[in-house]
Amino acid sequence: KAGVTQTPRYLIKTRGQQVTLSCSPISGHRSVSWYQQTPGQGLQFLFEYFSETQRNKGNFPGRFSGRQFSNSRSEMNVSTLELGDSALYLCASSPIDPEETQYFGPGTRLLVL
Amino acid sequence: GENVEQHPSTLSVQEGDSAVIKCTYSDSASNYFPWYKQELGKGPQLIIDIRSNVGEKKDQRIAVTLNKTAKHFSLHITETQPEDSAVYFCAVSGNTGKLIFGQGTTLQVKP
Known about the structure:
The structure holds 2 protein chains of 2 kinds.
Chain A: E1 5-7, E2 10-13, E3 19-24, E4 31-38, E5 42-50, E6 53-57, E7 64-68, E8 74-78, E9 87-94, E10 103-104, E11 108-112
Parallel strand pairs in A: 2-11
Antiparallel strand pairs in A: 1-3, 3-8, 4-5, 4-9, 5-6, 7-8, 9-10, 9-11
Chain B: E1 4-7, E2 10-14, E3 19-25, E4 32-38, E5 45-51, E6 56-59, E7 62-67, E8 72-77, E9 86-92, E10 100-101, E11 105-110
Parallel strand pairs in B: 2-11
Antiparallel strand pairs in B: 1-3, 3-8, 4-5, 4-9, 6-7, 7-8, 9-10, 9-11
């Protein structure tokens, strides 16, 4: 089986812009979670989707949003980018529940200038 | 909220030696404890996990032990090899499935 794929792998944006990141889970997996990784804050949970519904959300401002499609693919959007949004954004998928093993993709490296 | 402390932040060992990384957590409702290995430029890769009804789990050179009373769990790597060099993260989750990660341990295995 192919693993979790994320596109694009690298992205450079300027402050104030918005960005959309994409995640394709492992085939058959229906739960998708998003995490932000920075040197200062480490790995932090953003949100989790299952059957096109957000089931869980972390402590991030409303500028961070996401959605899931009927084929379980997910996107996350960050609006009005700030310098502090520069990070590695990771997507993880699990079969049904995020309590099951979560498998991570390679991430999207976002740089905000 | 849930908090996870991971120690040490860096660990350097000679090839063939053992490495131990420890994590403590605060929420007694946590019931799932995975360990991830992250190499440069890659996403975290699950290497072993344990659930709260098990005290120890082993997979070849890697083992994890869990002490629910003391709220800590540890990763043990025996016979370390240079390819074990990476950043290791512990994590915990409860019923929500949201993973709370430790700060990471950079393991260097010197040949």
